[in-house]
């Protein structure tokens, strides 16, 4: 009886020119891997070869999606800002009291900062000066819309009388405090993002625990 034919060995497919139907997925993967590398190594210290290796592709394949490293830096920031803007604009459309509105915005901002797969915000904060002028203008327009949502929420809270000691620098002070959490917050350290947002609101509104309990 003849031996059964041996099954064909599947050779790993080389990742060269993107195959039909996979281009969008590969582009998204390049953005994700680049964001991770820019966050950990820095933009200047990350090479195109580093990005290609992280994505598991040949170095030349990278250029089917991005002509320069500058383009992928802009894509990371722009895509991240678009997602964050959509989230806060959806919150702003809800029928919430001013303090509840600000609380939701604080929690959303902290989630954007601290979620394990959200590398773009660290890149945005620390690699802003690496952007070219055209990219900076596009992303600045998104940032302006994001900040406008906060400005309206803060103004409403000022007018409500629930903010004991408001100031003209509230948004800047809030962003400064929240953005710094990326330097010290550790998941599993005793407070999740929701609890951190609650404590942040007490700090922002300068609300003593005794008053909060009333």
TrEMBL record:
Domain of life from the UniProt record: Bacteria
Q: Does the keyword Transcription apply?
A: no
Record InterPro entries: Homeodomain-like_sf, HTH-type_TetR-like_transc_reg, HTH_TetR, KstR2_TetR_C, Tet_transcr_reg_TetR-rel_C_sf
- DNA-binding positions: 47-66
Q: Which Gene3D superfamilies match?
A: Tetracycline Repressor, domain 2
Per the record, which residues fall in region Disordered?
Answer: 1-25
Can you give the residue ranges of the HTH tetR-type domain? 24-84
Q: Does the keyword Coiled coil apply?
A: yes
State one molecular function term (GO).
DNA-binding transcription factor activity
According to its UniProt record, what is one Pfam family this protein matches? TetR_C_24
Q: Which UniProt keywords apply?
A: Coiled coil, DNA-binding
Q: What is this protein called?
A: TetR family transcriptional regulator
